[in-house]
């Protein structure tokens, strides 16, 4: 019986230690990637504003060709448009993305509401910046995600680097977007 009490005290101490450590671990993360595309900013913006176009460049759709996709809310490309997905593939999961704010030819803000494999709400955005002169068409596009993990689940940030997890997928998506847009007439 003394052995079980010692094990119980040890477990309670370890749980308490984890909870205290979690108090000092960051709760928020930010990840972004950028690329230059040889198109004017208005062309780039007009393409990325539509949720349906993400199917042509975002990497998550390619991870599950059987992902169920639906659209609802406002008209696609406007504030309030919603893109929903549901996949049996854990890396894709289920959730929805809603266009929350559009600053024409500059920024689109989204809210991401994940329901599986874990519930979480995050923010995503695209920004466009025209880089070219009158004879050159070049736009820098940035794709970013921001989110947080509540205490005590933020302890996972000691073992996870969101930049290393999401960054390569964002970059691959931007590389795909560049190919799509630069091949258009």
Summarize the structure in short.
This protein is of the alpha+beta class and 185 residues long. Helix content is 30%, strand content 34%.
Question: Would you write up a description of this structure?
Answer:
With 185 residues, the chain is an alpha+beta fold. The chain has one domain: START domain (Alpha-D-Glucose-1,6-Bisphosphate, Chain A, domain 4), CATH 3.30.530.20. 30% of the residues lie in helices and 34% in strands. It has four helices and seven strands. It has helices at 2-22, 41-48, 59-63, 162-183; strands spanning 28-37, 68-73, 81-86, 94-103, 107-116, 120-130, 139-148. A seven-stranded antiparallel beta sheet has the order 1-7-6-5-4-3-2. It is elongated and about 80 Å long.
**Main beta sheet: strand number and arrangement?**
7 strands, antiparallel
* Series of secondary-structure elements, N-terminal to C-terminal: HEHHEEEEEEH
Quick one: how many beta strands? 7
Whole-Å distance between the termini? 78 Å
Shape: elongated
**Main structural class:** alpha+beta
- Order of strands, main sheet, comes to 1-7-6-5-4-3-2
CATH overall fold name: Alpha-D-Glucose-1,6-Bisphosphate, Chain A, domain 4
What is the averaged pLDDT score? 88
Radius of gyration: 21 Å
| CATH architecture group name | 2-Layer Sandwich
| Number of helical stretches of at least 4 residues | 4
Give the DSSP E fraction (strand runs of 2 or more residues). Answer: 25-35%
Oligomeric nature of the chains: single chain
Binned, the helix content reads 25-40%
CATH superfamily: START domain
Q: Spans with pLDDT under 50 lasting ≥5 residues?
A: none
């Amino acid at each position: 019986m003394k052995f079980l009490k010692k094990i119980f005290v040890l477990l309670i101490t370890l749980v308490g230690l984890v909870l205290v450590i979690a108090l000092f671990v960051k709760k928020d993360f930010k990840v972004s990637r950028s690329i230059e595309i040889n198109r004017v900013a208005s062309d780039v913006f007009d393409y990325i504003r539509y949720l349906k176009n993400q199917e042509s460049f975002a990497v998550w759709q390619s991870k599950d060709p059987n992902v169920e996709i639906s659209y609802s809310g406002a008209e696609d490309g406007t504030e309030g448009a919603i893109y929903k997905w549901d996949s049996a593939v854990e890396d894709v999961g289920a959730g929805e993305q809603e266009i929350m704010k559009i600053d024409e030819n500059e920024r689109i803000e989204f809210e991401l509401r994940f329901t599986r494999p874990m519930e979480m709400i995050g923010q995503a955005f695209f920004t466009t910046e025209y880089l070219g002169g009158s004879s050159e068409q070049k736009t820098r596009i940035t794709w970013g995600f921001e989110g947080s993990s509540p205490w005590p689940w933020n302890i996972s940030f000691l073992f996870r680097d969101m930049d290393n997890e999401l960054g390569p997928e964002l970059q691959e998506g931007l590389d795909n977007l560049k190919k799509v847009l630069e091949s258009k007439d």
